[in-house]
C-alpha cells in the first residue's frame, strides 16, 4: 500500500523525534497508554467521517453529535435515572436517526452535504444546551463499571506496568470491521465506485442513494459511539464546548490518512495512522520543551499541510514518470 | 458567381494536428472567399471540429498557415482570432443567461465611461443596430435566459457582428432549432453573406447544405476528401465524398434470423417529450438502429428504457412480462444493459482499474454473502479483456489511461459479463478510431448471432444504414417511422428524421 | 416536575426542535407585568457558561424578586465576540443597568466606556479597573490566587514539583489568579502586576513550578494535559486546577495512573467532584468565591444606582466578597449551603 507509506513515514519520524527530544519520556508506559486511548477515541470518529468522505461528502456535525450523545447519556442516567441499557439504546437510536436524516436529505432532497451537516452542527449542540439547561453533565462517582469501557486497561501477559486501554479494543473492532467492509464486500466497492463517479455507478445498477445514506449512518453512529466513550473517559461534559471542532480533527485525520475530499479514495489503516499522527503531535508539544504549547495548532496545521503537499508531489512525480515513458 | 472570382478572405494551408494516438488533421487546406458560404462536411471524427477550433484559437495547430486577407496570422488564443475577425458560434451557445441581450453582445468589451463605469446607454444604442442586422426584434435590456434557443443564436450572431467578424464559423447551428427558426437563420446567413461576411457552415443536415452552400468542402479521417462546386452539390455526391469507401465492406452486416420478440414497448412516454407515445418491439438476434437529428429524443428513449429517467406512462414488456422499470437496477433485473452516450461520465469510473470497472454490474450477482468474489471477478475480467481484444498491459490498468476504443470495450465488457437479453447502445462508436469501430461492429454482429437483441442509437447515417436489420427514425420525440433493411436509404431516413411522413417518401 | 422530565426525555429522543421552554430559562422575568409602575430592567452578563454562573444567576434572580427589579441573565458561549454582541444588543434594547464580567478587560475598556454612556454599567467577577464602570462587585483574583497558593504550601510543607492547569490565560481574572498562586508559593511580595510566561520553570523555597497548561475549555484536552504531565513528570508532587472543571479532570487522570493520593490536588471553585474529592481526601482543599452574592449584590447595587442612591459605593469602587478556604473540616457545611442556594437535593456525600 504505497498510499500509506508517506504518512507512516511522517508518523515514525515524529515519534522518533519526540522520543529523542523528550529524553524517552514518550516511551513511558503511562504515556503510551494515554496516547493509545486518545488515538482510539479520535480514530473511531475519524473512521466514521472517512466513509462519508469516500462518497465525496462531508460531515460537519460530528462534534455536535458527540456533544448530544456525550451530554445526553449522563443526563438520561443521572438526571432521569434511566436504566443503562435503555439509555445506551436511546443513544444508538438517536445517532442512527441523525445519520439517516442526513442521508435522506442529501440523496432524496439533493441538499448539499456541507449545508445539511452544518445545520446539524448548529442544531444538535443547541438542542443539547437546551435540554441540559446548559449544565455540565457527568456521572459523578457513579457508573464506574460501565465507565471502565473507556478507562480500564487490559493487562498483557508477561508485560509489567502496561495495559492496553479499553477503547483500543473498540478501535480495533471498528477498524477491522470497517476495513473488511470497505475492501472485501461488494458494498465497500460500491462506495469507492460512487465516490469516484456517482453517475457511472448508478448506470451500472448500483443503488447509490442507499449507499450514501449508509455512509452517513455509519458516520453518525461512530460519532455517537465516540460521544459515549469520550464522556466516559473524561466524566464531565459541558454542552457549550464538549466535542467542539472534533469534526475538524476527524476530517484532518482522514485527509492525512489519504482520503480525498473529492471522494473515492481512502483506507482505514491510513485514517488510523492519520489519527495517531495528530495525537502524537499534540502529545509531543506538551512533552517537549522546544515548542511552546500555545502554538500547538500552528504545528498541527503545518504538518497536515506538509503531508498533503508531499502526497500530491509524489503523485505528480509518479504521473510525470508514467507520461514520459 | 464563381468562387474563383471572389476575393479570398481566409486561406488555410497544410494544417496538421496530432492528439495522443490520433492524427486529427493531416495537411488540411481550406479557402473561403469574401461573402461566400462554405459548408464543411465530414463524419464525426473526420476533423471538422478540430479545424474549427484551431481557426477560432481554442486549439493550436502543430503546423500549417492561416492567411486572412492576404496576410499570414498567428491564431494562438481566442482573443487573437477575434482580433483577426474570426468568430466561432458554438453548438452549445456561449451566452450568460442571467445577463441582458446588450450585456451579452458586449461581454468582455464593455464600453466605459470615466474609465470604469459601464456605459449602458452606449451599449443600448449599439446593440439595437446589431440586432436589427440579424433581424431580431427584442429589447437589448431583455434577459437572454428568457429567449428561445433560436433567438439566442441570433444574439450570438449579433455579438459576432459587433466585433466586426469577417469570417463567421457556425458549428451545427440548426441542431436545436425548429424548422421555422432554422428558416429565419438561413435568411440571416444569406443576408450576411451578401454583405461580404464569409460563412463557414458545419452541418450534418445535407438538405440545408444543398440549399445554402456556395461550395462544399469534405473532410475524411483528417484529410481533405474533395470539394463540390455549387452546381455539383447533391446528396449523392456529398455522401460519396464523406464515406469514400465501399460501405458494404466496412460493415460486417449479414441479415439475421430474427427470433421471438424479447422486448416490446407500448405507449411509452418519456419525460423529455411528454406529449409523444412510443411503440415498438425487438426480436432476439436483431440489430435495430435508431436514427434522428440531434434533439429528436433518441438518447432520452434509451435512458427511459434503462430506468435512468423513468417513463411517465406506458409499458415495457420483456419476455412478454410487464416490467416496472424505474431505475437501472430494475432494467438490469429485466435483462437490459445500456452502453451510455457519455462514456467517461456514465459508462466508466475512469480512476478505477479495468477489472473493477468490468465487475461493477456483476458484483451483486457474483457476491458471496455480501463479500467480493475475487477469483470470479478476476476470471471474468481477464476473459473479457481477451475476448474483446482490449489493448492493455494488464486488467489492473487504470481505465483513464486507455484509448477511447479500448475504454468503450471495457464498457461493453461490463455488460456482456451480465449476459443481457437486450443491449442498448447509445452512439457506440463516437470518438473512436476506425480500427476500433470495426471491432465494435464485429462484436455487435457476433452478439446478435448469439440471440442478443441490440438497439443502437447513432448520429452517423452510414452506421445506421450499414448495421441495422431495421431502423427506427425519430423526430421531436416521436417515432416517425420504421424502415426494413430493404427500405433503408439515406433519403428515406432523412425524410422521416425531418418529420415528413412515410407516405411522402 | 415529573411531567416536565417526561417531556424533556421525549424531546431529547426526538433530537430536534427548539427547546424554548425547557431547562434553565435564561430569561426570568417576573410575571406581574403591567400591574404597577414600570420596573427597572437590568442585565447580568457572565463570561461563559458554567455551574458557577448558575449559582450567580440564582442570586441575581433572588435579588430581583426581593427588590422588584426585572433581571435577565446572559451567558455568552462564543467568547469575547459573543459577549460584545450581547452587550450591544442589551443597550439597543434599552436596559437600565448592566453588570458584566468582562472576558478581556484590558481590550474591552473602550467597549465598557461606550456602553456606560448609554446605561448604568458595573463589573462583577472580573474588573476593568481603567474603565468608567461605576463599581466592581467581586473579589481580588490575585488575592484568591495567593490563598490557593497557601493551600499548596499547606499540602506540601516540604516543597515539591507543581504544575498549574487552567482553561485559558487571556482573561484578566485567570492571569491574576495564577500569578497569585505562583507568587505565594515562591514567597514573593504582593504584586498583582507580575507576569511569568506559562512555559517558564520557576523555583524557590524548595518549590518548583513546572509550568502552566491551558486547554481552551476542551475537556478532553484538559484531561490529556493532566495525563501528559504525569507521563513527563512522574515525580510531580502537586497539581493545581484553577478553573472549576480542571480539578475533576486531574482526578480522572490520577485515577487512571493509579496515583490518587500520591499527588496532591489543589482545586479552585466548587465543582461537585472537587468537593467530593475533599471529602474523600483525594483533594487537599479548594478556594471558593461567592457567586451567589456576586449575582445578588450586582442587581442590588444596580437598583440603588438607578434610584440615584450612590451611598453604598465605596471610595475605591470595589465591593469585595473575599474568597474562602474550603478544607475537609468545612466542606460538608459549605456544600449543603450551596445546594440549598441551587435548590437541589443534596447528593450523596459520605
Report how far the terminal alpha carbons of chain C are from each other.
27 Å
Per the principal axes of the C-alpha atoms, what is the gross shape of chain A? globular
- The level 1 CATH classification of the largest domain in chain C is Alpha Beta
How many separate domains make up the residues of chain C? 2
Summarize the largest interface: chains and residue counts: A-C, 60 and 54 residues
Q: Provide the low-confidence segments of chain C as ranges.
A: 11-35, 345-350
Beta content of chain C comes to: 15-25%
Helix content of chain C: 40-55%
Give, in spatial order, the strands making up the sheet with the most strands of chain C.
Answer: 1-3-2-4-5-6-13
Which structural class is indicated by helix and strand composition of chain C? alpha/beta
Query: Strands across the major sheet of chain A, in which order?
Result: 1-4
Distance between the termini of chain A: 23 Å
Molecular shape of chain C = globular
Question: What's the structural blueprint in terms of helices and strands?
Answer:
The complex is a heterotrimer of chains A (325), B (505) and C (350).
Chain A: H1 2-21, H2 29-54, H3 62-79, H4 84-107, H5 113-131, E1 137-138, H6 144-151, E2 153-155, E3 163-165, H7 166-184, H8 186-196, H9 198-203, H10 208-234, E4 236-237, H11 246-256, H12 268-287, H13 296-324
Antiparallel strand pairs in A: 1-4, 2-3
Helix pairs in contact in A: 1-12, 2-7, 2-10, 2-11, 2-12, 3-4, 3-5, 3-10, 3-11, 4-5, 4-10, 6-10, 7-8, 8-10, 11-12
Chain B: E1 8-19, E2 22-33, E3 37-41, H1 48-55, E4 63-68, E5 71-73, H2 78-83, E6 86-89, H3 101-105, E7 112-113, E8 117-118, H4 120-133, H5 149-162, E9 167-171, H6 179-194, E10 198-202, H7 206-212, E11 215-220, E12 223-229, H8 235-243, H9 247-250, E13 261-269, E14 278-283, E15 287-292, H10 298-305, E16 313-318, E17 321-323, H11 328-333, E18 336-339, H12 343-347, H13 354-358, H14 363-366, H15 374-387, H16 404-416, E19 422-426, H17 434-449, E20 453-457, H18 461-467, E21 470-475, E22 478-484, H19 490-497
Parallel strand pairs in B: 3-10, 3-11, 6-9, 9-10, 15-20, 15-21, 18-19, 19-20
Antiparallel strand pairs in B: 1-2, 1-4, 4-5, 7-8, 11-12, 13-14, 13-16, 16-17, 21-22
Helix pairs in contact in B: 4-5
Chain C: H1 2-14, E1 27-28, E2 41-45, H2 51-67, E3 70-74, H3 79-93, E4 97-100, H4 105-118, E5 120-124, E6 136-138, H5 141-155, E7 160-166, H6 172-185, E8 202-204, E9 207-214, H7 219-232, E10 238-241, H8 246-256, E11 264-268, H9 272-280, E12 285-288, H10 291-306, E13 318-320, E14 324-326, H11 331-342
Parallel strand pairs in C: 2-3, 2-4, 4-5, 5-6, 6-13, 7-9, 7-10, 10-11, 11-12
Antiparallel strand pairs in C: 1-3, 8-9, 12-14
Helix pairs in contact in C: 2-10, 5-6, 7-8
